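Following up on my earlier message about alpha-methylisocitric acid. Here are the inputs again, as you asked, copied directly from the submission form:
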Amino acid sequence: MAFDIDMIKKVYANMTERVDAARDIVGKPLTLSEKILYSHLWDGKPTTAFTRGKDYVDFAPDRVACQDATAQMALLQFMQAGKPKVAVPTTVHCDHLIQAKDGAAADLKNANSTSSEVFNFLESVSNKYGIGFWKPGAGIIHQVVLENYAFPGGMMIGTDSHTVNAGGLGMVAIGVGGADAVDVMAGMAWELKFPKLIGVKLTGKLSGWTAPKDVILKVAEILTVKGGTGAIVEYFGPGATAMSCTGKGTICNMGAEIGATTSTFGYDESMERYLRATDREDVADAANKIKDYLTADAEVYANPEQYFDQVIEINLSELGPLLNGPFTPDLSTPVGKEMTEKATSNEWPLQVEWGLIGSCTNSSYEDLSRASSIAQQAIDKGLKMKAELGINPGSEQVRYTAERDGILGIFENLDAKIFTNACGPCIGQWARYSDPKNAPKNSIVHSFNRNFAKRADGNPNTHAFVASPELTAAIAVAGRLDFNPLTDKLINENGEEVMFDEPTGWELPPKGFEVKDNGYLEPVEDGSGVIINVNPDSERLELLEPFTPIGNSIKGAKLLIKAYGKCTTDHISMAGPWLRFRGHLDNIANNTLIGAVNAFNKKTNFVKNQLTGDYAGVPDTQREYKKAGILSVVVGDHNYGEGSSREHAAMQPRHLGVAAVIVKSFARIHETNLKKQGMLGLTFVNEADYDLIQEDDTFNFLDLNEFAPDKQLNVEVVHSDGSKDIISLNHTYNQAQIEWYNEGSALNLIKKQNA
Ligand code: MIC
Ligand code: SF4
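Thanks, got it. Here's what our run produced:
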């Protein structure tokens, strides 16, 4: 049912031949990342060596995965492509639209009634086009993919930035926007700039309180939220092989937080154990036969500096538990005293109100078992929870097994809330407050990956810190952000001083995984008779209209907003309550850029309407420009569009009439999403030109009629006093992408080609 062993065997048969060919052409030993990339070329056997960070290359991924919040737009676009069936194995996972409130049973029931229209739509589209469908409650996409579909040496794309999680099982798995997924589902090549390669050598061994999570929290500190941009991070060394497969998944998962294209590990015994435990003996056997192809050539790991563009070394024996946050995942602080000082000087509340364990990053059996060992100690040592505790298991298989093995019971004994096998609080689906905007300042600790402002609970005053599941559990018991479980004592119910012992757990369930109903629905063989209904009055689903080309003469465009500081996809198209409109472009457009800070008044959703001089919300102002037939421009800082793969962050501005986004630098997925939707994503040649942009500016593009690869564009910026600046802009469009722009979108081009 779940995976296609014949497809995997075919990939492996190609791999041996293609990797050998690639090694000859490249003329040196290959990294694992290169082996996977070169064996997945659209044109088959490699004939050219590509330049990393420069050449655009066509690939042929083996699989596609979509989650409910992005699948709606991806499938609405796919429906326009005119194909009867998806060309490669594809799955849809319902995990983002389930709110955490009262606990799994009630919350799932509630989601099934409030989002039935969307779930039914996704189910029938999946059935029609031959897509595997994972029902609400089946689990979080990336855990389900790791358990069922990921395989060493494979290449997949997914409409979610944390698709990269599958690197834990030795894949090159990449997060993309829905329009990219449409290419692959429609049987076309998928294009990516050949990535740079960062090698991370892990020496020593994890022990005690240090977890795989701490490795990636450390890497995030070293590389920052944009340090991985355009690169694949390949982990190796004794510390890597000593780690569990799901632990490797955690590390790869948060590669999204450093902007990396993806991360991966070479095939090893931990992966073999995981494949066998998850009922994939045949995949393990097939992988064992070509082991050398599923890891780098030995010479590469012996002299990594010669083969990677950058090498980082981390000694796991010296690494301690970390807490990253608040508001950004790369701000790292070791547990204990240093946190006391930092929190005090920055006025981060030291008292912790919630500990949350789960999300695609850390919801494996091992994660739950290690956290439960801390919970059990709290019970045994007579400690009372100081903070509340919430748990989201990663999949029904993990949940069922953890319940059978008494793990969930331990948490329940501490009054923890067991939420649905879904994203829950990680994506703002958390009914924590009735009025989040006016909720009090507080701190929470979670095992998730993202901690942008307002993300989990909508409260701008929540300080969220990211940690391993075991540290999250310990901090939730202690109720203090600066609790150091290695050194600090706690006072129990009897007034005695007690200390935690080191966490313990099982890499894999000793009695094996078990599940009754995993929540999977296989599509019918022939879906041609399946009818898809979209109610024209629906507020949640809307069929798409093709975008009209912006054209090569942009004159008189107005500045919509100059965004100040961090502008993630959460700022551009907020999740949480807005997730309900993910299938309705016009409705979701009402949240466009409402989280972005206006550089001129430091307020959110408060910009000047240049036609009236009045200040109003961003979407309202933009709709006024649209009505007047005036295009607009968005200006931003570094790493604009960091975070999610949601193409809504590009489609909404496009829908409302924004022609160009001009920034200091982009996050990879977002930049591609802008291109796919037929708009301009440009960067300042001189970053300081950002400072020249004023509130009343008008933009005249001077040479868009000569739009060509590797050629700068120039724009005349007219200020309100009549003075002008000419600003030079870089772009990364190749000829094919310029065609997308000319046609109005990549999808328009597909339609034209299919017609
Ligand atoms: C996220 O973690 O932000 C999400 C929600 O999973 C997104 C996808 C989305 O916006 O639907 C992601 O990471 O790509
Ligand atoms: Fe879901 Fe959170 Fe993972 Fe995104 S990061 S897929 S919201 S669990």
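One observation from looking it over: The CA atoms of residues 574 and 591 lie 7 Å apart. Hope that helps, and feel free to reply on this thread.
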